[in-house]
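Standup notes
- DV: blocked on the single-chain target, sequence here:
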Amino acid sequence: MDISLSGFLQSLANPAMLTTVVLTLGVIFVNGWTDAPNAIATTVTTRGMAAKPAIIMSAVFNFLGVLIMTQINASVAETISNMVDFGGDAHASMIALAAALFSIVVYSVGASIFGIPTSESHSLIAGLTGAAIAIQGSFKGINWNEWIKVLYGMVLSLVLGFALGWIICKCVILICQSMDRRKTNRFFSGAQIAGAAAMSFMHGAQDGQKFIGVLLLGMAFVNGQSSAASMVIPVWLMMLCSITMGVGTSVGGEKIIKSVGMDMVKLEPFQGFSSDLAGAISILISTLYGIPISTTHAKTSSIMGVGAVKRLSSINLNVVKDMVLTWIFTFPGCGLIAYLMAKLFLLVF
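- DV (later): unblocked, structure below
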């Protein structure tokens, strides 16, 4: 089913649809603000780029990632839109979807205030899941064949990111061990800018598609459909999401840059390049297979893999512990908020 821009604008006359769109764009903005800085964290902290130009570069490549990858491969958007079942009542489904998005904003902003990297990916999945369970009254609101990809993503982002970070860094050391250190530092100072651009592009490609999937659900519900299976992603929707994420990224998040790139492990330019390349590759593989992953997970695990090449003690485990606790609490915390919000919204509206 094709959705025109004029048809979309007309659908905003529906209060539930308007609320859903505003909240979705708000979450995309927050994602650009809080998650996207992870992509440039190592480049900034190794002094490959200053923070402001790095943030501008990241905003541009986030925009391109959403726009280009969605046209090439939109499987992540399809996974998100199909992993939950809100039932056959389109009006109630729209209300529950709005509740899910409200819970994501509340949870994400709260975590970002303290400068702790939060996973909007996990918040989104938890919010949709909690709302679907609330409206269905049971776990039949979950399509397990699609939801299982979330578990795959948790494993892939951690294991693949760490392994690739370790392997790439090892290879770089072996290749450059007999070269002049000053020359290699200059080379990798430039190369990690390209690595940060690749990370930013893949962040947009992965996370942008997740929110496109949410908007597809909203448009399906407002047109009386129970799922977005027959929906075709229009270019104007890609543009809307990519611009919103780019603007959010331009706001920046220097607390998060410091937490991810500096506090976790002290990096040299070649290590920053290795972690960026490893993170970008792990996100690319997951995106091509339609597996929603946390870009924060992918980046931080690749940094840990790079740090482990030197010695495990070089990793600041207190920062790692704080991140892991945040991720662990996201599913039950955001899921419960979404469940309660959905019940409340359905009761009131």
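- Follow-up: The two ends are 28 Å apart (CA to CA).
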